[in-house]
Amino acid sequence: MLLTKREIGELSILKILIEEKNYSRKKDLLKQLNMSISTIKRHIQSLNETLSKINGFQNIKVVTLKDGYLLNNPTPLNNIYVLKKINLFYHENSIQFKLISNLFSTIPHPLSIDKITKELAISSPYVYKLLQSTNKNLEMFDLHTEFVAVENQTNTKISIIGNTMSVFLFELHFYFSIYQGLEWIFPNVTMEELYLYCSPKELEELLNLSLAKQTKFFYSLAIFNQKSISLKEILIEKDFADVLSVFMAEKDLSHPLRKSFEFTESSLVTKDTYLFFNYVQRIFNAMSDTKQAQIRIGKKINEQENNVLVDYCKIIILSFYKQFPETKRNDLSEEIHFRLLYFLTLFFANIFYVGFDSSRLQQLLYINPDVSIQQTKLQKKIKNFLEKFLSENPSTSKSSISSYHLNLLCTIFDYFIYDSIKDKLNIYIQFSKNLYGQINIESWLTRVFGEEKIRFSTEISSADIIISDFYEETYQSTKYFYFDNLTNKNRWEQLYAFVHEHQLKLLD
After folding, report:
1. What are the start-end ranges of the H helices in 63-183?
2. What does the DSSP 8-state code read for residue 475?
3. Least buried of 127, 162, 384, 432, by fewest C-beta within 10 Å?
4. CB 17 within 8 A of CB 24
């Protein structure tokens, strides 16, 4: 972890208070945090001191009552916005975080040890000690630091070494998880410049998405733009490229990137760069295509032959139909087949060719698990089916199926069993960590409220309510529900109550 135990404790207390509608009894807090009452008191005192230091937060305070603790926020600021700002405040004061930021900011050029010592105001021996812990953090993502010999220079330099795709994905997830759009962190390009790279139609579409998706898109655009010199190192295998070409042909999300390269050394950029950028937006930035576009993409992918990725996905779909014949309904069988191909090729492309597991960031940053499933009888059956299939059909891939990836895969199949969305209350769901958390929430809301009660919107502006793992708006809103931990039973119950409350408002 980049933060201290004290900082993590303070953030945990604040998060629990927010989720419990700003109040928690002492005994409940003790049970959830597994801390002593004296430790909790120290954390709250320190948290209040931190709040007093941040501009605009001086009137926000955790108040100690007889039986519990109350978060008193008399300002119009969203409580989750406050939580994210404090999280950012702590990270920006972390030496380890500053070191990682410095190392990634210079890629592909090495960074001198002398420059690190000056910028961080620490000694060289301490730099080497920090680099050891940095390598332990980075090795989870197949990255590491390496000393670089520079001709005619005596100063030791260090560089990040690893697959170019992994470097980009780590940097995107790392900065987004910490900064959350609260600050612009790319010195060589401004948001205004990035807006100019988008056509009016593209900009309109982006602004109709949640703030999280907008932020991730512009962060990735800035990272790609600033590191154009290393983009030539992105090499995509043929089968992977053939599949990505179908996605890009349906909707090319890389036009702003192409536009930005008109002002840089665009000769260094290959088609693989644009294919990978499109993939990043869909799988890691959770920018899904429309249902009809998914069907068209799946249909074209289905036509591909002798493609290892596609063939593997077809085999698992056929096995799924045999295990769950109820999903192969005559009226929807083709639609389900093509949409399954859409989701499964995106999923297994990461397993086969990229090998990035964002859940590992939990060991580095203060974030919740990306996605987990509630273990119903059906989901246990799906999980058993997948475990058996994967053991009987091993494949040569870049990474193994982790428990996190297995949960994602379970969510895909669970979604298609319950896929029937037609209703009245217009809900916009934002789950920025991945594409599958959103469909997990959709699946549960559909089975709880029924097909006749709710529908899901692709435009945030037309939604009656917004369910999001992002703060979305700076100011408080009665139509907004913060939801970022799919394993929290209490939050699920609060979500159901929130949806039901707004259904009753529609009846009025």
Report:
1. 79-92, 95-105, 113-120, 124-138, 164-179
2. B
3. 384
4. yes
